[in-house]
Amino acid sequence: MLLASTTASALQAAGFIGTWDTDVSAGQSVLDLGAASVLAGNPGLVGKPVPLDVALAQIHPEDRDWVFGTIRDLRQTGGPVAIEFRILTRTGETRWILNQGLLAPTETGGLHGRGAYIDITNLSGRSVPRRDSGPASTEHLDAAADHCVQLHTALERHGDAALRLLSGMLLLGIGRALAQRAS
Fold first, then answer.
1. I need a surface site. Which of 61, 111, 148, 153 has the fewest CB within 10 A?
2. Closest Cα partner for 3 from 170, 139, 143?
3. Which residues form the PAS fold-3 domain (predicted)?
4. Could you tell me whether strands 50-51 and 79-88 are parallel, antiparallel, or unpaired per DSSP bridges?
5. Which has the higher per-residue pLDDT, 72 or 159?
6. Domain edges within the chain
């Protein structure tokens, strides 16, 4: 997916990693370059259908069982996906990831899902200390939130589900940053 340079940099600033596309009945997901590199730990898997354990190979060992269980449950029922978990990078660093998306029914009665991964380590304050840039950064976040709400509203009218998902994730990231500044 090609994004305008300003949107791409805004998504990067919000921690956007990449996207997934899942055929539930086949039990396989297709990852974009960011997701294949960070979550699977193998950029060579981009665009190739892979099973869940390969797509999420970098999940922290302490989180694997419950994350895989949650995903298996969602693959039975469908619905919104919103899971926060840790990964271990190839360099041994622990990062917090938000997996957000939707598993929806298909015309044939199966489930198909799409979503994205966002690195929320800096937003959660769990592994990386929060950096407070003062009042000026709050003004910039407020302005970004206003613009993002307008963007999200326009994309809802446009009807493209993938773009709405991306703008929703950006809103989530900005909202978390604003909430963290308020605390």
1. 61
2. 170
3. 56-104
4. unpaired
5. 72
6. 5-182
Amino acid at 160: D
Question: CATH fold of 5-182, please?
Answer: Beta-Lactamase (3.30.450)
Question: Reduced to 3 states, what is the DSSP secondary structure of residue 79?
Answer: strand
* The model's pTM: 0.67
Ordered DSSP codes for 7-65: HHHHHHHTTEEEEEEEETTTTEEEE-HHHIIIIIS-GGGTTS-EEHHHHTTTB-TTTHH
Residues 6+ apart with CB under 8 A from 129: none
- Write the pLDDT tens digit of every residue in 95-110: 999 999 999 999 998 9
Statement: residue 134 has pLDDT above 60: no
